[in-house]
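Run log // design_07
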């Protein structure tokens, strides 16, 4: 690339936020250079049916082990796109952190489950409701038209009813419930809603097309696990549904295998003038220039780029004049549980239509949590179908018969609870000066559990026991300790939005307070975590931010 090339926007990242920005900006005539750490994922790598034992034919056992246990991506199928620590290391302190990162066009949206509940009006004003932290600097009504746009244009399946903590969307029909999921639903409505009036047990909200959406977008026909990639494009993937259309436009350029190191600042104006990046394959360093820079590299990676963007103008990192970049890292605490339903023992093995867990239970804790001594709350996801019951105590033929008898009777629950922002959880550049394989200083992720987090985890354990017992489940297993922080993959908040520049990094459009032509478009600028998957809200915020950015470019105000 010539050093004279200047784009309207240099955009970093192609996941939820980056993909939405790329698509909207490019379709509105903006000249965009989009830098992506990795490369496109070929169709044959999406949704592989390859079984573990079959992988031995092409992968050494050591590589399989690494994919499953290092920690790795917990899947050998997508392991080639996972960023292992020997490529890009990071350090941890306190409770530790599991940072799951992928280098591919589409980012995590290529490998996600698709769960997509909207934030509720209550979420945006949680701070003023319970007195902890700030409210968001926008309302549900500000974001609602963008949620609607996503449902209509990108596809979203869900129930016909809303909930105080989970507004109704414009949904496709959901997948049918499986037998075990209906057992759970009957138990909730037949036994538990009197004690827990906000408990709702309905089909899950997922960004999956279950109806026709035009060429290149097949409705879901339940052919595999969503989180292994969707070859038919039924489940939303930024690479397929946002980046691919942009690539057909002459004003959009995708540069893959570009590892961004820092934002470059104009020494005369203080504005962002571009980025420096390293070619992942050759390790050569390059610069790219733009009138505007947008970072959508993920919450922790975007903070890392900002903190590494030091100069005489920005000695603590660009957009970090008040020391807020990297602070307020928050995520969700997870608890898993499962059991086996005797009423389904002996059921003949058959294919179950559905996509992962088909049940979603929005936050139901508001009616009792004050008495229980915690604020915020959690959601519960559930699914049923095939599973090997570890409680079968036999050997040989009896073991095989027991496994077969219980095979269709598995019921699992997965709860995600909001972790509170706390001063012990944040990101900084590692003080040791260590660098990754590209010569870029690495991050150190600090993590601490708030006492409220522990209380939420305890309530999850208790309520999942109640739920499973209400179904009559046997051999109940429930997590006994909180998992490693970061395991939810829902980290947000490192570049928090707000109206007060002393307490936040950017405004509600993602525009940084200190540098007006520098924007954030990933989960980093969430104000608080909530208990919900952040992806659809990242998309909605990026769509809103892109609207704003197009208008500001038209007015020429960002270069004034």
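design_07 sequence
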């Amino acid at each position: 690339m010539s050093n004279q090339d200047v784009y309207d926007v240099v955009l970093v990242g192609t996941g939820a936020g980056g993909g939405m920005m790329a698509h909207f900006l490019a379709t509105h005539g903006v000249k965009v250079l989009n830098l992506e750490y990795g490369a496109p994922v070929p169709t044959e790598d999406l949704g592989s049916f390859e079984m573990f034992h079959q992988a031995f034919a092409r992968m050494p056992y050591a590589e399989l082990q690494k994919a499953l246990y290092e920690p790795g991506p917990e899947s050998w199928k997508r392991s080639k796109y996972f960023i292992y620590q020997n490529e890009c290391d990071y350090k941890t302190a306190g409770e530790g952190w599991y940072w799951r990162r992928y280098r591919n066009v589409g980012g995590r949206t290529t490998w996600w489950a698709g769960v997509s509940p909207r934030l509720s009006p209550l979420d945006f004003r949680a701070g003023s409701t319970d007195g902890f932290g700030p409210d968001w600097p926008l309302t549900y009504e500000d974001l609602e038209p963008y949620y609607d746009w996503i449902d209509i244009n990108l596809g979203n399946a869900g129930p016909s009813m809303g909930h105080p903590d989970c507004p109704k969307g414009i949904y496709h029909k959901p997948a049918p419930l499986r037998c075990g999921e209906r057992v759970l639903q009957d138990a909730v409505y037949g036994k538990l809603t009197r004690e827990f009036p906000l408990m709702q047990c309905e089909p899950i909200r997922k960004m999956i097309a279950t109806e026709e959406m035009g060429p290149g977008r097949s409705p879901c026909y339940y052919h595999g696990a969503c989180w292994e990639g969707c070859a038919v494009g039924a489940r939303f993937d930024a690479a397929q549904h946002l980046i691919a259309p942009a690539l057909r436009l002459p004003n959009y350029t995708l540069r893959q295998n570009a590892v961004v190191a820092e934002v470059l600042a104009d020494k005369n104006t203080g504005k962002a003038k571009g980025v420096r990046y390293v070619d992942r394959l050759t390790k050569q360093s390059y610069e790219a220039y733009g009138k505007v820079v947008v970072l959508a590299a993920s919450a922790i990676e975007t903070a890392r780029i900002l903190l590494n963007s030091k100069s005489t103008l920005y000695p603590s990192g660009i957009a970090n004049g008040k020391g807020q970049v990297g602070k307020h890292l928050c995520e969700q605490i997870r608890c898993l549980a499962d059991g086996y339903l005797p009423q389904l023992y002996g059921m003949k093995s058959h294919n179950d239509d559905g996509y992962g867990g088909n049940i979603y239970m929005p936050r139901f804790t508001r009616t009792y949590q004050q008495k229980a001594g915690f604020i915020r709350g959690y959601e519960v996801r559930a699914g049923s179908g095939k599973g090997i019951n570890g409680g079968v105590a036999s050997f040989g033929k009896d073991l095989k018969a027991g496994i077969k008898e219980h095979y269709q009777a598995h019921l699992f629950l997965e709860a995600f609870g909001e972790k509170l922002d706390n001063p012990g959880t944040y990101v900084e550049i590692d003080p040791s000066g260590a660098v990754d394989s590209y010569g870029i200083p690495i991050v150190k992720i600090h993590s601490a559990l708030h006492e409220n987090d522990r209380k939420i985890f305890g309530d999850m354990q208790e309520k999942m026991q109640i739920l499973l017992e209400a179904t009559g489940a046997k051999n109940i297993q429930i997590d006994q300790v909180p998992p490693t922080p970061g395991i939810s993959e829902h980290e947000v908040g490192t570049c928090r939005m707000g109206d007060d520049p002393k307490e936040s990094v950017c405004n509600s459009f993602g525009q940084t307070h200190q540098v007006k032509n520098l924007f954030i478009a990933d989960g980093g600028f969430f104000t608080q975590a909530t208990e919900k998957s952040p992806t659809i809200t990242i998309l909605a915020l990026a769509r809103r931010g892109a609207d704003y950015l197009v208008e500001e470019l038209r007015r020429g105000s960002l270069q004034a």
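Residues 511 and 519 are 4 Å apart (CA to CA).
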